[in-house]
Design brief:
Largest sheet: 5 strands, antiparallel
Strand order of the largest sheet: 1-2-3-5-4
Radius of gyration: 19 Å
Number of strands: 10
Helix content: 40-55%
Length: about 300
């Protein structure tokens, strides 16, 4: 049995052996995790999601902060309830909803719903957050990833200097920011639609940040075109973006894709999960290059 399979078997045993269950249960693997092993468990007629994974220092993931954010988001009415937390494991209610895909996020009919969801995340979640205050500044994350890639060596180390130079230009373009509480991992599949309302799951990167990071991440992960990005900004801020906001947003959008690219590069070297990080790196590098071109063509004389 290889390392990934061994880890999956151990995680499943952990999920099934939790003391909260009323009797023997079966943990069914839940696809989609890139940093955790996830399962569904049905116990006493109720269904739950079990997330198994410890701290990930190379990605700045601290499970205590994830737990605090998950509880705060539930108190704000945005996320499922936490039912159990222990070393390396988090159990939340199952949401009977459909994960969004990129087409859903781009649909004009969902624009106001998504903008409202983000405003609530940004302004209501911190009212309930308890404990040390985390921050997620993408440019510091990129600097740390650059150091990790240099120390690790490997096929991507030679790209670090070029990434650092571009990140410095993007950080300058973003300029001063307003601070809100961000989810910071707005993949479409992390947004669930139960037919009545939207839910947001997977809070492991949640921390204080600029709202532009969530907006840029949502737009880039959904493949929004220029008109879609402008409409998202207008829906969120309730006003058409001025040139300064548009420049900062395009810079943060490119930065979100550079971070995702470097996240995957670091994961190639450090993750033990059975996931094709090399393909994910290539996909996000191409998307970053496209976003960098948009930024250069639109905002650099």
């Amino acid at each position: 049995m290889n390392r990934a399979a061994t880890r999956a078997a151990e995680a499943r045993r952990l999920a099934e052996g939790l003391p909260i269950w009323s009797g023997p249960v079966t943990a069914e693997p839940l696809a989609g995790g890139m940093t955790n092993l996830n399962f569904t468990v049905t116990d006493a007629g109720r269904r739950y999601v079990v997330r198994v994974g410890g701290d990930i220092p190379e990605h700045g993931v601290l499970r205590a902060a994830e737990l605090a954010a998950s509880r705060a988001a539930h108190a704000a009415g945005l996320a499922p309830a936490v039912r159990h937390a222990g070393p390396g494991v988090l159990v939340v209610d199952w949401i009977d909803g459909r994960p969004l895909d990129a087409t859903d996020v781009r649909a004009p009919a969902n624009l106001d719903r998504l903008a409202d969801l983000l405003r609530r995340v940004h302004h209501e979640t911190p009212r309930h957050f308890r404990g040390p205050t985390p921050i997620f500044w993408v440019f510091q994350v990129i600097r740390d990833y650059a150091a990790t890639l240099t120390e690790t060596g490997g096929p991507h180390a030679g790209r670090v200097a070029g990434f650092a130079a571009r990140a410095a230009a993007l950080e300058e373009a973003v300029g001063p920011v307003r601070i809100v509480f961000g989810h910071n991992d707005l993949l479409p599949a992390n947004i669930l639609d139960d037919g009545d309302r939207l839910w947001l799951v997977d809070w492991e990167y949640a921390a204080f940040n600029s709202p532009l990071f969530d907006l840029g991440g949502l737009a880039s992960n959904a493949g929004m075109d220029a008109a879609g990005r402008a409409a998202l900004l207008e829906a969120y801020f309730r006003a058409a973006p001025d040139p300064g906001l548009a420049r900062a947003f395009d810079a943060m959008t490119a930065a979100s894709l550079l971070r995702e690219t470097m996240w995957s590069m670091v994961s190639e070297a450090h993750s033990g999960l059975d996931f094709d990080y090399a393909a994910y790196t290539a996909e996000n590098l191409a998307r970053f290059e496209a976003a960098w071109a948009v930024f250069r063509e639109s905002h650099v004389p």
